[in-house]
Amino acid sequence: MSKADIAVVGLAVMGQNLILNMNDHGFKVVAYNRTTSKVDDFLQGGAKDTNIVGAYSVEEMVSKLSKPRKVMLMVKAGEVVDHFIAQIVPHLEQGDIIIDGGNSNFPDTQRRVDALNKQGILYIGTGVSGGEEGARFGPSIMPGGMPEAWQYVKPIFQAISAKTPLGEPCCEWVGDGGAGHFVKMVHNGIEYGDMQLICEAYQMMSDLLGMDNQAQADIFNAWNKTELESYLIEITANILGFKDEEGFVVDRILDTAGQKGTGKWTGITALDLGIPLTLIAESVFARCLSARKDERVKAAELYGIQNQNQNQNPNPNPKGLDKTALLSDIQQALLFAKVISYAQGYMLMQEAAKEYSWTLNYGDIALMWREGCIIRSVFLDDIKKAYENNPNLENLIFDPFFKDILTKALPSVRRVMATAVSAGVPVPALSSALAFFDGMLTARLPANLLQAQRDYFGAHTYERLDKSRGQFFHTDWIGSNSGVSSSTYDA
Q1: Is 191 marked active-site?
Q2: Active site includes 168?
Q3: Which phi and psi (to 5°) does residue 152 adopt?
Q4: CA torsion 255→256→260→261, rounded to 10°?
Q5: What is the rounded CA–CA span in Å between residue 83 and residue 62?
Q6: pLDDT tens digits for 78-136?
Q7: Are 184 and 103 in contact (CB under 8 A)?
Q8: Separation of alpha carbons 284 and 258, rounded Å
Q9: Which of 28, 38, 64, 184 is catalytic?
Q10: Are the CB atoms for 196 and 161 separated by under 8 Å?
């Protein structure tokens, strides 16, 4: 029997679909799961009549692989990954490859790269995005780790990945160490932002205009034929229009959102690196607020707020607003905030590249996100062009194409914000996008007063407009005559 090209550990939906995808592209795959009955179920189910082979122990799995052996883990992030690595390594030889395809936190990936490098084992931490459908028919794949391993997995990964309309694979080497999982983390953070912005548009349509689900589905379908065309806009239209025997399904779903941690990691990393990732952070906090359902219901009752949900208030256009004008403004506001979200995400990647000595190709990253992944959209073609035109682009908002979008959409954003705030409709992600943009366009912020306050109560010192950067000064605000100041540091 010929040896297999790769093994996949973990037969949940993502693992099974990746295996079937690899099989479709002519690669022989070994399927293994810690609960070995799942191997039989898979071989007798989805993998029946294919070239996929099963294994019932780590040793058997490794024995069925051609060299250099390639083992891909599709298991829960965290301790489970370390557990399988510890089990697999004793059966490998120098030059063999372990791939983590889960949503691992990038510092964990960096740690594993360093540890396995000492043992001569090559390690790749790769983001895989696209959900069940993407895994089966073409995901976005973001590999990083030890570059020596890339040549061995490249044929497999690029074959099974999604393809752009021009046929380019949505998979390219990202960088050393934890770079692949870092880029996947930023992808997920942007995903949080896109989803929250869409939800805010949904709530404004419901609460301000009294639009029913089908009317909203029609609007999202129309928007999906514009510059907002994207997977998330497409599925939002499908969700809003979906009915079963009891009616619209979305209306019966409890309004408390879950999360798996990648959005939180993105926010924490942004704080560590001093990047104002405000929109994504607000999107994470919006999920946290949604989880406090009982408190929100109690607060609404306490303050006498009437629920404007379309099921309880079927009055069309309860606020008497110009529907056509407001919908046009919401569309532009979504586009504006989407640009800001990506700009912040790219700011974070650029700072991380400096911090961790990564060489990231920002155009290639946009290409990897163009198809297959959750945030895929036509919008990403324009980001790729921006970085092709200027590989040293400091900020996405400086690109002429995006400057034009932001400038034209800004009046709409301000009108939407004024309307939502006046009506008491929460728009945390949208408002954070506008606040960030206004802050970026303010050449002199009030941080001079903030620095004076810090120096007053803590002698933290400050820099001066009339002196070169890097010189720090302290004022004796209270007449202590101590002349002693605190040490300086940058946030």
Answers
A1: yes
A2: no
A3: -85, -30
A4: 110
A5: 16
A6: 999 999 999 999 999 999 999 999 999 999 999 999 999 999 999 999 999 988 999 99
A7: yes
A8: 10
A9: 184
A10: no
